[in-house]
Design brief:
With 129 residues, this protein is mainly β. The protein is 0% helix and 50% strand. It has one domain: Neuraminidase, CATH 2.120.10.30. The chain starts with a strand and ends with a strand.
Amino acid sequence: MLKIPLGGGTPTTLASGQIAPDGIAVDSTAVYWIEEVASSIVQKVPLRDGLPILLVSAQGGGTLGLAVDDTNIYWTSELKFGTVMSAPKGGGDPSTLASGQIEPLGLAIDHANVYWGTSDGNVMQLAKP
């Protein structure tokens, strides 16, 4: 995974050796992503310098969306019973926000809600816990 200044220049490696990174989200201090290995893991790496940090493991695979706010990370998982999950940005136990969703895709958040689409054409909304 690389970063490059907005004005152009030489790319800098943020994290190497990643297998199929997906669902990338960024805040003011870190880059967050899902690595689609055997069972999907959620990781982050500081924007400046540092090594990747495992935040959440064993998410069942098929993770299709990722978003962050000031305190939490949010993601969807197709293969873990169509769930929408969250966990603290510093790491910790994940919480299930919704389950039984039909292939939850994409993910967006605002100050009060979590939104995602489903493969049957619906857009879902849930108030943040």
